[in-house]
Amino acid sequence: MERESFSDPEVGAALNAAFIPVKVDREERPDVDSIYMTVCQAMTGSGGWPLTVILTPDQKPFFAGTYFPKKSSFGRIGLLELTQRIRELWSTRREQLLTVAAQNMAVLAAGAKRGGEGTIEPAVLDRGFSQLAAAYDAQHGGFGFAPKFPAPHNLIFLLRYWKRTGEQKALAMVEETLVAMRRGGIYDQIGYGFHRYSTDERWFAPHFEKMLYDQAMLLLAYLEAYQVTNRGFYRQTVEEVFTYLLREMHDPSGGFYSAEDADSEGVEGKFYLWTGSEVEKVLSPDEKALVTAYFNLTPDGNFRSHDHPEGVNLFYLKTDLAEVAQQLRLSPGEAEALLASARMKLYTYRRRRVAPFKDDKILTDWNGLLLAALAKGGRVLQAPEWIRTAEKTAEFLLTAMRSPDGGLWHRYRQGEAGIPGFLDDYAFLIWGLLELFETTFKTNYLAEALALNTYLRQYFLDEEEGGYFQTSLTGEKVPIRQKDLYDGAIPSGNSVMMLNLLRLARLTGDPSWQQEAERISAFFAGRVMTAPENYAHFLSALDFAFGPSQEVVIVGRRGEELTEKMLTHLATTFHPRRVVLFRPSDELHPAITELSPFTQELTALEGKITAYICRDYQCSQPTTDWTHFRELIEG
Description:
Glutaredoxin; 4 domains; Glycosyltransferase
């Protein structure tokens, strides 16, 4: 529609004569997008983008659809004809249109209310697993059919379900999906990073757009899989994605850009696809032989599409490098050296092409997700560079994205911040700060998380029924203040806040945070019990809520061997219902005792490094012994 209609003078004249046209960037205004997408789904039974909605002057929607051609074609009304028809109806049957608008507003209002009654029981986790298992593609990994999306929050929940129940199928579903995605064309095998989704079932043919939130959520999934399995394949994947983010998406300010387009020079995927002659020109014969075998290139091309009918090559994997090395009679070391040199040559050559457009706006919510991934990665991988990057990102978000009243801005670009923050901005940044606190134990990150929670409580919380509105009490007036829970491309703000609050309750010992989480659970109980598969991140929060949780406080001095040994063990093992605090024993009044008063009484026994291990607030005897510490942690 951008090329076909919105840049066309004839269409522009027709639209301007009939309407006040407004184009909305759904990433900048997710509240507006969410409201009118709900209307589109209610009116048409489906939704999608581009989203086309026609409103009364007071913003009440009476018509909705998605794509419209310039002129009517094959039974689909064109934008020119639609515009003329709406003008006629507005003149002759306005009352009928206003009635439709009022009905749509009633649908929106109903969606913001409690979704049924009931209490959520632990059995909902079993139902969620069963529903995901039923949707699982056992042949190719992932869920559902083409187009196939990564859905990393599904995988993150399945890891927790495996940990809770020992259900091996849950772990197998995660591993098969992660391996298939990393080997597939959905992954950029030369420059790294994941494309938006696969247009086929086997992760081969991507929609070539790259989104920051996909990189963040997939980093979290691969990191947790690495914690569980210790497979170097997962570690390599996250290190490659980290390389991509720093190389292509990092703004000097400290934030990260939003996306890279699928198209370049008006052709989708052109930047990422290769002819055989290009590969031959760039590589030595030995490199070409390895790359051809490893990435499954063919003389006529392995990839065809509307934009590429002649066939070009898309790099993807079927097997490990070791197997290809054996076929080519190379040692593992020789194969790795050839692959590294070939990949660098291909990447350098590709950079000379016209690159896809980079959406260089910086969004607080997506950067909050990435902050969580960077901080967790620094902890799990014991990687100082990840931690430094995370701290720089946090500094940017807590300064450039802070509004004068202590709240957050949503969007930043080229030195200018704007648009008051939405629920997701606060929820995701709080998540990132909690991860960064448990990585560094710097109390300012916990303090900032608490301050943002307090702001949320004041301006976003539904005091009457529980849960958080998407928009602030003081923000721009919208037709309805929605409360969303659906975990779509990214988790919902309410799902993330549920887990944030549970973690904060255990980190601080303040039960009011848990009570707030319980009210979220009660408000959304009906929706979750009806279709738990739609709320995978919320299920992860429920997994934490149902427990048993583990609270660990290490009292000691940083740098000492036993302190670091204990903290490293806690950082690198997978225990998703655990929170960890560190209380310095060489400070008279450490700052952590102000934020977590229960740590005031936890001291170093006989001056030794001491671990306090509690389950659901019930604590065992403290220990200074490494072996006993391991038994308590793993018991």
